[in-house]
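Hey, can you fold this one?
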Amino acid sequence: MWEDAVRLAMAEYEVLSESVKDRVRRLGETIRQVKREIFSLANKSVIDKTCADCGGLCCETGKYHFSVVDLLMYLSTGMELFRPLFRETPCPYLGDAGCLMAPAYRPFTCITFHCERIESQLSSADLERIGALERGLRDSCRELDGLFGQRMMQGLLLRYTRLLQGEVAEIISTDAGC
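Sure. Predicted structure:
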């Protein structure tokens, strides 16, 4: 299912106009920068090690966290897409060495959610800054929603399932910006 969803989304992305792709690239730069900053603030608590040690137990539905926005970040930069590990652990994006994605490419939920173990190691100023960054990140994602006329933060696999059920016509609206 993952491969089919990615293949279809890639084909849809390729037929987008250059002006739409340019807007996606510009918004993507902002989104990735904010994600890097959030991760940098949270990294003080050694987030990768904490999450790898726990096995991603906070992500019981982790396979749905990777969204259409996240895929657009890969497609718009030409970054090679990772291969998820659908196995017994709750998060298919967590490998033996931690997350399979660089912080700037991680899903919204993964980059903004911090469990009590992590939050307890952050200062109140850092938590406040993370909250402000999260609001800005939401705004940038909403801009993508507006560009495509649909919820782009919806999980890629959920969106693909809706497509298979005939509820939507595309993963990425190829009428974007028209």
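The radius of gyration is 16 Å. Let me know if you want another pass with a different chain boundary.
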